[in-house]
Amino acid sequence: MHRAHTAFSLALSPMAHKNFATWLLNSNSSQKLIRASAASAVRTYNSAAAEPFANGSTASYVEEMYNAWLRDPSSVHTSWDAYFRSNSYVSPPNLAPVQANTLPLTAFNFGGAVSAAPDSKTIDDHLAVQAIIRSYQIRGHNIAHLDPLEINTPDLPGNSSTKSIYANFSFGEQDMERQFKLPSTTFIGGDEASLPLKEILNRLENVYCNKIGVEFMFINSLEQCNWIRKRFETPGVLNFSPEEKRLILARLTRATGFEAFLAKKYSSEKRFGLEGCEIMIPALKEIIDVSTELGVESVIMGMPHRGRLNTLANVCRKPLNQIFTQFAGLEAADDGSGDVKYHLGTYIERLNRVTNKNIRLAVVANPSHLEAVDPVVQGKTRAEQFYRGDQEGKKVMSILIHGDAAFCGQGVVYETMHLSDLPDYTTHGTIHVVANNQIGFTTDPRFSRSSPYCTDVARVVNAPIFHVNADDPEAVMHVCKVAAEWRATFHKDCVIDLVGYRRNGHNEIDEPMFTQPLMYQKIRKHKNCLDLYADKLIAEGTVTGEEVKSVAAKYENICEEAFALAKTETHVKYKDWLDSPWSGFFEGKDPLKVAPTGVKEETLIHIGNRFSSPPPNAAEFVIHKGLMRVLAARKTMVDEKIADWALGEAMAFGSLLKEGIHVRLSGQDVERGTFSHRHHVLHHQLVDKATYNSLQHMYPDQAPYSVSNSSLSEYAVLGFEHGYSMTNPNALVLWEAQFGDFSNTAQSIIDQFISSGQSKWVRQSGLVMLLPHGMEGMGPEHSSCRVERFLQMSSDDPDYFPPESDEFAIRQLHDINWIVANCTTPANLFHILRRQIALPFRKPLILCTPKSLLRHPEAKSPFSEMSEGSEFLRIIPDRGPAGDNASNVKKVVFCTGRVYYDLTKTRAEKQLEKDIAIVRVEQVSPFPFDLVKEQANLYKNAELVWAQEEHKNQGCWTYVQPRFLTALNHSRDISQSDEQSTFSNSTSTTTTDNTNHESDTESDSNSDKKSKPWLSRMFASDKGDTVTTGSGTVTGEFNAAKHFDLKNVRHDFNRPAGIAAAPGVRKAKTGRKISYAGRACGASTATGSKAQHIRELNALLNDAIST
Ligand SMILES: Cc1ncc(C[n+]2csc(CCOP(=O)(O)OP(=O)(O)O)c2C)c(N)n1
Ligand SMILES: [Mg+2]
């Protein structure tokens, strides 16, 4: 129940005759009520209800005065002092709710002579003044002058004028000079305890209705509300020294000058300029200055397109020539497909000149997908805090910059906000800055949101919101200072809403008059912020006109010099734009050597014993009986030296922790595990919040293990873990979906970051996605993790059989964008998880995980398969009679995942163990061409079948089919105009296609073709060109960034010159084929009815297991 409501109900109860406040403090029952509601009340308690005066109740107001008088008689007005001394005071009869701020003065007796007790008018007038103060605090922002264009006002009722704030109080002119005692909820008096009404109104007007609109009275903490009131109400807070003003002017000059310079030099290039909101640059700098002063050493920023280049240039101080080089459309000196200039990240360490402290600034690279970077930034920030032992976020902080339309429109903002206060996800306060230009592309706010402000989403986490007119630099700086102090004090989020405008179209080539004619007529006439501020400072004598000009000229010179330097560059380097460098990680490593993943048997036994034991103080720690059985079963397995799924996973985690590798597992209900198999956190059955996590206590000097149930979000949490994984390569970071298909709500993290991050931004990540997958008759959902979608984004070429060598597997891993696997044994799970760290580079791992196999009696592995000398098996060959006598085998069924166990069962039932071999493809991507070929050769006379339980248009079939053909037929006609698969959606600079493998053999002088080798290849035969065929060997090299340079990798393009074939037609010249056994194509991931599911499964098993 809402706290205010509780109070009201109590008032009507038999207790109501009691003094409510005293009752609340003294009564046993109320103490119980407070305690009982403590947990929930933390989040529902409302400051408005917390303040005695909040509901306008005379009773509680008088009571507050009385209590204050009891403490210190001089703290109240003399009239109150006299009144209480007269013993006339009796407790109020009840707390009947009165509508806030609407008490008519006429409801009380006017004009009674002042005697020992104040007359009711005095009380009423004081109440009214309090109500007015409160009204300003709550609603002042509604009528503040926030919009530089004066077009938009928040869509709130009664916001037309100041009068609306105190319309219901009938003070006249004659009251204006009357002195009123100021309540404890305001700081407008400074040192003065009372002020004339006129002055009270003036001050409130200035504080709350001028260029700053503070929205904070919804916050649940009285302390926090008071803190904010003090920061804005205290007289003189907006006074800036001449030095401070000059600094603001200089920063604004740079911000404005930068955009002007780009506009001059690259007039036809998109840059998503900041014009109309240039103040964002000094604003960010102020936040960073104040935060640095308060102890922050590292700031991680996430931001969209708008003003990004300006931020890199003037906040991060990225060398201007590097920025300008991005406009030149140069070829990249390193690998990758690149990205447009307003998406790239950066990382800078530099001295903050204002605070004289070293600071690290990172802007995280982000895709077009607005706000997708938010959780990534939070994850990266959290990780940095973790590795620095910065448990309160005093050293590392994040700043998120948003567009107004995106901030309210994108759901991930809300999801990210909800991580802000969770123990394992908090970054201890983020400062959100909204570059609110009052438009989103061509859409006005009234069509893009249903809330009055674009910032309302922040209210859900009780973040104060500071709206400010972007044309008032000093107001903006004050707000930024308060925001930085707020974060440092309370370690909670807050929002700065910079209300400006957008001087140009959405980008510089867009025509805004098509859609916002009146707004743009106004903008055309509107002076820019720099000019307005310069005029102001000149007028007040802080600077001269000459100074203003010379600061601007100086910056233009700096830009010109950098521009000249940029012209001398011949290449861009993507690694200059890396946001998370891993210093030292690649150095001295053989990029083609993977460390062994097997561990000593004694390690397995040690981990197994710990994992199956109750806490050391087991006698006091009451464990659920069911869990005692789980532990006992684990112990039996350890004694027998076998592992089930949970044990295999724990062995992987435990052994990595032993080696100093931090492990973090996050996702919905991961602590227990959705399928109740994991149980990493044991809960004391009698003591609240007493838990035991054995993986945290494996070895005294182990690395930290963290397992955390997340909020019910995929998008934000997956993004968060991705960000976490970017920070340190020596950590195993895993995100588990509740069921695999739920990962599709995080699709843009998967598409835009995980699958393509390395290609676009040279950023590696070893993140593991655990996706429960398997058709078990549970209906269309909860069945498939849609592995086909991940496979479709895998970048290995279906037609390219890489050269066979000892390094085949590692080279494949090196060259691919991510790994997709579906393991069928705990041992293989163990190895593939450990391999994530054993690799000399990092690749994301998409791992289909089982459900029923978690308890399947056959899905167990002996310790010998995890101990030294064992390794991950990309393919598990048939180990039975068929495998032993391969030449007699009639059919080889290739499969992946849990269907293997159904297939073997059916084979046994049909007594076909000698006739049919079943081979498990455990690592689906990169495709094990070499091992498939080997298996096919082993069973020379057998028919080859791919069996899968997913529908034909789903599962792995569409991915494996062409690759099987490549593995089976070494020479084939390639009639498609393929190029090397690329794992970002498209190359994004105008010249990056040149980095592809055939660019160096390009002979056509046509520039379009030159930039697109695939185009040349397609038309080669028409023009009689010959395309150089590849040697089939990899002659690439490792570049400075330790990335294998694909430029020199030759493909096996064996197309005879002059033969043109229709694109998309593939013809196997010779060799064997593979056929399909499984469900037909389907629209949903699985059939809804269990009976139908079983029928279909039986059909496919019969189809696959038949000779
Ligand atoms: C998820 C997503 N949807 C759509 C777009 C296309 N888009 C790019 S900018 C933009 C308008 C953004 O408006 P706002 O957030 O106010 O930022 P502004 O451009 O005004 O700075 C849109 C719709 C996108 N980039 N991302
Ligand atoms: Mg906008």
TrEMBL record:
Question: What UniProt keywords are attached to this protein's entry?
Answer: Glycolysis, Magnesium, Metal-binding, Mitochondrion, Oxidoreductase, Thiamine pyrophosphate, Transit peptide
Which Gene3D superfamilies does this UniProt record tie to the protein? 3.40.50.12470, 3.40.50.970, Multifunctional 2-oxoglutarate metabolism enzyme, C-terminal domain, TPP helical domain
Point to the regions of Basic and acidic residues compositional bias.
995-1011
**First-tier enzyme category under EC:** oxidoreductase
Main localization (coarse) = mitochondrion
* Gene Ontology cellular-component terms listed: mitochondrial matrix; oxoglutarate dehydrogenase complex
For the region Disordered, give the residue spans.
975-1013
Annotated catalysed reactions:
N(6)-[(R)-lipoyl]-L-lysyl-[protein] + 2-oxoglutarate + H(+) = N(6)-[(R)-S(8)-succinyldihydrolipoyl]-L-lysyl-[protein] + CO2
**GO BP, one example?**
tricarboxylic acid cycle
Provide any one GO MF term from the record. Answer: metal ion binding
Q: What does this protein need as cofactor? A: thiamine diphosphate; Mg(2+)
CDD domains membership: TPP_E1_OGDC_like (cd02016)
Compositional bias ranges of the Low complexity kind: 981-994
EC number(s) on record? 1.2.4.2
Q: Read off the Pfam families from this record.
A: 2-oxogl_dehyd_N, E1_dh, OxoGdeHyase_C, Transket_pyr
The residues covered by the Transketolase-like pyrimidine-binding domain are 643-856
- What NCBIfam families does the annotation carry? 2oxo_dh_E1, PRK09404.1, PRK12270.1
Describe the family membership recorded for this protein in Swiss-Prot or TrEMBL: Belongs to the alpha-ketoglutarate dehydrogenase family.
Q: What does this protein do?
A: The 2-oxoglutarate dehydrogenase complex catalyzes the overall conversion of 2-oxoglutarate to succinyl-CoA and CO(2). It contains multiple copies of three enzymatic components: 2-oxoglutarate dehydrogenase (E1), dihydrolipoamide succinyltransferase (E2) and lipoamide dehydrogenase (E3).
Indicate what this protein is called per its UniProt record: 2-oxoglutarate dehydrogenase, mitochondrial
Q: Which gene encodes it?
A: LOC111603693
